[in-house]
Amino acid sequence: MQKCKVIAVANQKGGVGKTTTTEHLGIGLAKAGKKVLLIDLDPQANLTACLGWQNVDALDHTVSDVIESSIRKESVKFDDIILHHDEGVDLIPSNISLSEYEPRLAGVFMREKILANGIEAIKDDYDFVLIDCSPTLGILTINAIVAADEILIPVQPQYLPAIGMTQLVRTIEEVRTNMKPDLKYSGIVFTLVNMQTNIAKDTIESVKETFGKHIKVYESYIPIATKVSESAIHGKSIYDFSSDSKASKAYEELTKEFLKDHREKKKDMER
Fold first, then answer.
1. Using CB atoms within 10 A of its CB, is residue 145 exposed (0-12), middle (13-18) or buried (19+)?
2. How far apart are CA 18 and CA 164, in angstroms?
């Protein structure tokens, strides 16, 4: 049975908590004893910076090396690329050099599978690989979706982010129909939540009604929290920076819910 699960954390709407969710779910899984690799697939490199490597342009090796080696059909030198974070996760970092591959991949044969092919050799070393996608539905995000076993969708409960989900789900369904029939949804997680507002409550109910029959909606909501932004400045997770905060507790609950869901899926497959 497949050991590693590759999770693409995707939403083409920016500012909905993709990076924060990737970081804290990943570190939460590591705290639970799982071996976790995070991949920063965004040229803005926010995940890399949040984990403490803030001078991203000084990095000699990044996810661009994985893509370049895969294009050339060469073995990837992961020992040169992977960074090790104090909180137990590994990271394939990013920087602005990744932006060169959006136009370049357009002329590459089987361009949608370049990332999948590139990380194939490293997957057996991990229980989970989490990919932080850029806020687009371009070829890099498509590569992440094709490389993934499941898609996790962070959504801010506001009108425009919720509306954008329709296009994302349509893209995922196209990939599933044409390239990867086994692709699944990990679920929808609400982020940057302020339950004191009616629009948040109404949007959550609307998303549940529209998508909840076919996609799991996590019960753990991630609240708006300034301490999350402060922790990123220090290159630490919210667990390490402010372990008693509401955001820390919320990500702990999300991690527990995520692991419970995957244990149940595994049992179903074994029956």
1. buried
2. 14
φ/ψ of 197, rounded to 5, equals: -105, 145
The pair of structure tokens assigned to 89 is 């996760």
pTM of the model: 0.95
One-character DSSP codes across 140-203: HHHHHHHH-SEEEEEE-SSHHHHHHHHHHHHHHHHHHHHT-TT-EEEEEEE-SB-TTSHHHHHH
Which tens digit of pLDDT belongs to each residue from 189-243?
A: 999 988 888 888 998 999 999 999 999 999 999 998 888 888 988 888 999 998 8
DSSP-assigned beta bridge partners for residue 153: 188
**CA-to-CA distance for 98 and 95, rounded, in angstroms?**
6
What's the rounded Cα separation, in Å, for the pair 57 and 40?
14
Residue in this structure with the two tokens 């090796």, named with its chain if needed: 61
| Average pLDDT for 111-132 | 97
DSSP string of 219-238, one letter each residue? S-PPBP-HHHHHHHHTT--H
In angstroms, what CA-CA distances link 245 with 92, 190, 252? 28, 18, 11
Assigned token pair, 173: 């369904």
Which 8-state DSSP code applies to residue 25? H
β-bridge partners, 130: 7, 38
Half-sphere exposure at residue 219, Cβ-oriented, CA atoms within 13 angstroms: 5
